[in-house]
Design goal:
alpha/beta; 13 helices
Length: 446
């Protein structure tokens, strides 16, 4: 049993694993259920006695199917994990992971209720870098990013983003008790998680809560305007059989109907050639003043940002050959007809959605910024994530099999390098190559 930690909310104990002390399933906010559902999160209630943080918490409800590989989920999902090197120390750098999943899927808790396996194992990353690692769940899809506030004051906007802010507030208040330095907190995230980091870098509620950012394959422009979100929300309510004049009916929506509406809305959005994630944060003009890709350049926080060479292959490889000739026009690409159309179309989509927005940010960024590109193997969107964490994290990808969660030797060696670079950046604010504004260097990992 790990030592007992005194936090601002009560005492907590964890477990010893792989040379680390793990504190799993820490409630960082009150459960967003009942009157608190679809509202910005509130601080957790203090607890009596010792909270045994020895099991991962419940994940957010997944977006499009009850059969997602993360089956341990529900609305009561605002839980955090903290992993500390067993060697201990004070004022350790802190790395905080914000998972991706198109704002609709993913999590950081237990994969299923019967298993002890977590979506992400933080222990290897923690042990190798000597940093404290933290990850947490936040509300997704309907529950975190559907904008119903335009129809009723009963609902708050961008609940998923405010969950992240609440988690960062908890870390700021408590990480010193675990040996961490609240003045040296680095956010790192992938895909929609990376886009959230860009948003947090522009939000006054969030900017004092962290010092540096690592932005992996961000869907930079995946945000809705209030007008767009209102239309989507109205359509969504209609799909569920509800009137936008009575949006409170959604509080009792049947989960099966929610999954179907989520899928139907996604199909409708994609059929219109829209690449924005179906459930995305809303540019409210108040806390989120504009598209983060446009205004994050004012930030002076050190930032490491990059992409994977063939991001869009994850989405285009499964398209039937019959639709490939029509896909460029649908998504407003300039891909010309001819040989290797799928390959060129996918590369053009990668450039439009991922590479060009990142280059635009780097070119105008006020602070120190470093660029990278991941080119290992197939190098599709999210392929670097299991390599970075040093263990297979998701079924159905090359990097995981049901019977073996270890990586192949060359992937394992690259993962060791990635963790070293990410750890160095957390410690020093520098990854080890030239800043983009000085050298225009894009460091290659392969």
């Amino acid at each position: 049993m790990a030592k007992v930690i005194e936090t601002t909310y009560g005492k907590i104990s964890g477990i010893s694993k792989n040379g680390c002390l793990e504190f799993l399933g820490i409630p960082y906010a009150k459960a967003p259920v009942g009157d608190l559902a679809f509202r910005h999160p509130e601080d957790p209630a203090p607890w009596d006695g010792i909270l045994e943080a020895n099991k991962g918490g419940r994940n957010s409800i997944q977006g499009f199917s009850s059969r997602h590989y993360i089956s341990y989920n529900g609305q009561d999902c605002l839980y955090m994990n903290i992993c500390v090197p067993e060697s201990g120390g004070n004022d350790l750098p802190v790395l905080v992971w914000i998972h991706g999943g198109s704002y609709a899927t993913g999590g950081t808790g237990r994969i299923n209720e019967q298993s002890e396996d977590m979506v992400y194992d933080l222990t290897r990353f923690t042990k190798e870098t000597g940093c404290i690692l933290v990850d947490f769940n936040y509300r997704l899809n309907l529950y975190g990013f559907m904008n119903l506030s335009c129809f009723s004051s009963r609902f708050d906007m961008n609940c998923g983003l405010f969950d992240q802010i609440k988690a960062l507030e908890f870390i700021q208040k408590n990480i010193a008790f675990f040996g961490g330095d609240p003045g040296n907190i680095t956010l790192f995230g992938q895909s929609s998680g990376a886009a959230c980091i860009l948003a947090l870098m522009t939000m006054p509620e969030a900017t004092p809560l962290f010092t540096k950012a690592i932005v992996q394959s961000a869907c930079v422009d995946s945000f809705w305007t209030p007008e767009q979100s209102r239309k989507l929300s109205k359509t969504y309510l209609r799909m569920l059989g509800y009137s936008y004049k009575k949006p409170e009916m959604i509080l009792n929506a049947d989960p099966t109907a929610v999954y179907k509406a989520n899928r139907d809305l996604k199909i409708q959005v994609r059929a219109k050639g829209e690449v924005t994630c179906v459930f995305s944060p809303v540019i409210d003009g108040n806390t989120l003043k504009d598209y983060p890709g446009k205004i994050v350049s004012a930030s002076t926080k050190p930032m490491l940002i990059g992409t994977v060479m063939r991001e869009a292959d994850l989405f285009t490889n499964g398209l039937p050959a019959i639709v490939i000739p029509y896909t460029p026009r649908l998504f407003k690409l300039k891909t010309r007809w001819g040989k290797d159309l799928r390959r060129r179309m996918s590369d053009d989509l990668t450039y439009k959605v991922y590479k060009k927005p990142v280059l635009d940010i780097a070119s105008s960024y006020s602070g120190n910024v470093w660029l990278y590109e991941y080119q290992f193997r197939k190098c599709r969107h999210a392929d670097e994530v299991p390599v970075l964490f040093g263990s297979k994290t998701e079924p159905g990808r090359d990097a995981r099999s049901p019977s073996d969660t270890s990586l192949e030797p060359d992937a394992d060696a690259l993962g060791t390098l990635l963790r070293s670079v990410w750890g160095d950046f957390a410690k020093t604010g520098r990854p080890g190559w030239g800043m983009y504004k000085d050298s225009r260097e894009i460091h290659i990992f392969k």
